[in-house]
Design a protein that fits this description.
Structural class: alpha+beta
Strand content: 5-15%
Largest sheet: 7 strands, mixed
Helix content: 25-40%
CATH class of one domain: Mainly Beta
Order of helices and strands: EEHEHHHHHEEEHEEHEHEEEEEHHHEEHH
CATH topology of one domain: Jelly Rolls
Number of strands: 16
Strand order of the largest sheet: 1-2-3-11-7-13-5
Shape: globular
Distance between the termini: 41 Å
CATH superfamily of one domain: B-lactam Antibiotic, Isopenicillin N Synthase, Chain
Length: 460
């Protein structure tokens, strides 16, 4: 067993263990300890417990992945992403054992020591070496390289029947699509102590509902699978309708400049906090092998990974009601289903995140601070295909970076459930090519023909 915080073995009943881990952030780390439920128990009794915990707190933590599975998923990231960085030799990462020997990710004799070396806790020299060779978005801890979106191991989680059943129960939706999202690789000392925020606009939502309109807040369930120990910063109970009404009534005059068109909202640390939300936030410790699922209306934040902690590995995995959303097309003028299929068959990222924010290959702020982007440009050899130019806001031609396709990419195999999570609600697949045999409004006429050719093209 390679992870000190590996999930405990299942016992009778749903409760596998209680989280009690020191928090170095100064946040409330939950003195009452949160219960971790068994994500592999999908009996009606346990599903009810999971849903009850989720509805009460706005999140639930599930023990889900075995230590062996976590190890496989970490190695997959190193094979497919981290060791594939295009940097020059000066910046390229080399994993070494205690005796200094270079470790091979594909050598089974090196497996145990390789994992220990890349999970940590890391010694300062190793951490510095990894910081130099890490992918873009190192500060956030989740890169946007083309390879991260459709790793086979990640899809094994997305199309897991137990996880889908739990998501369906707590989201109260029979037919769900899974997020096309990124993997997590967050080094110790990285991350931003981001202030609390909502991934939607609570003021616009409440205004719409007061006027008898539809609920414009996101539907479904958010989540992340953690291969190593992690944390989740949140304020308990802030997802409920009652709290939302109270929040808007109390804070609306403090934030008069919020536009109804704003997609997100974040609290300002310099402004009054009448409900003491900052003081109420807590950092829930997530053991390795867990999946934490949270309500899309939950107030949450982020924190730096303590310098003495292991590297955080994982992936974001959320679900939402199946079908292309109008908001997706409104933001980017691309049909959501079309974009999902393009992403899957071509092995590239989507245009938008589930929140409808634009996917950025490198952090957006690099556009305003070109010296930060230059720090990555210098890691590439002259003439590298990732190097290109763009027109700045001032009309200047400036250097930039673009993602590359994955060499030899093949779409990962999907089960019937995985297929329905990606592109259709109730479909039967005839291969080749795929044919939608149901009445699905998003896959009629030219769309079926177009994606049939995408499928055929990807197999030649």
């Amino acid at each position: 067993m390679l992870h000190e915080s590996a999930p405990p073995q299942p016992i009778e009943g749903p409760v596998l263990g209680k989280r009690k881990e020191p928090c170095e952030s100064g946040l409330d780390d939950g003195n009452d300890t949160e219960t971790i439920l068994n994500g592999r128990d999908v009996s009606p009794t346990n599903l009810k417990r999971i849903k009850t915990a989720y509805e009460k707190n706005g999140l639930v933590c599930l023990s889900f992945l075995t230590p062996a599975k976590c190890d496989e998923l970490i190695l997959e990231q190193w094979r497919k992403v981290l060791l594939k960085q295009e940097w020059t030799e000066e910046y390229r990462m080399t994993v070494r054992g205690r005796d200094g020997i270079v470790l091979d990710v594909d050598n089974t004799d090196h497996r145990k020591e390789f994992l220990k070396s890349v999970v940590g806790p890391l010694d300062p020299k190793t951490r510095k070496m990894m910081e130099k060779g890490w992918p873009l978005h190192r500060g956030f801890g989740a890169c946007c390289d083309s390879a991260v979106y459709h790793l086979e191991g990640v899809w094994s989680i997305r199309q897991d029947p137990d996880l889908y059943q739990i998501a369906s129960i707590i989201a109260e939706e029979e037919n769900l699509w899974v997020d096309v999202n990124r993997s997590i690789q967050k080094l110790p000392g990285q991350g931003e102590s981001e202030f609390l925020h909502y991934d939607f606009n609570p003021f616009a939502r409440q205004k719409m509902m007061n006027e008898g309109g539809v609920d414009v807040s996101p539907k479904g369930v958010c989540g992340k699978a953690c291969y190593t120990p992690s944390r989740f910063v949140y304020v308990e109970g802030t997802h409920s309708d009652d709290f939302q009404k109270e929040f808007v009534n109390v804070y609306k005059d403090l934030y008069p400049n919020v536009k109804m068109s704003d997609k997100k909202f974040g609290l300002d640390a310099k402004k009054p906090d009448p409900l003491h939300l900052a003081a109420r936030k807590r950092a829930m410790a997530i053991p390795a092998g867990s999946v934490v699922m949270w309500h899309p209306r939950l107030l949450h934040g982020q924190m730096k990974t303590p310098i003495g902690d292991p590297v955080e590995y994982g992936n974001y995995v959320g679900f939402f009601p199946a079908g292309s959303r109008e908001g997706y097309h409104a933001v980017c003028n691309v049909n959501e289903l079309k974009d999902r299929l393009r992403s899957y068959y071509k092995g590239i990222g989507p245009v938008l995140w589930p929140s409808f924010d634009k996917v950025q290959y490198y952090p957006y702020r690099f556009n305003n601070f070109p010296h930060l982007l230059q720090g990555y440009i210098k890691k590439l050899p002259p003439g590298h295909p990732m190097l290109c130019t763009r027109i700045s806001g001032k009309g200047l031609v400036v250097p930039t970076l673009k993602p590359l396709p994955v060499p030899g990419y093949q779409p990962p195999p999907l089960s019937d459930l995985g297929t329905s999570c990606l592109w259709c609600r109730v479909c039967s697949i005839v291969s080749p090519p795929p044919q939608c045999l149901c009445v699905c409004e998003s896959l009629v006429g030219v769309y079926v023909l177009e994606f049939t050719w995408i499928y055929i093209y990807s197999h030649f």
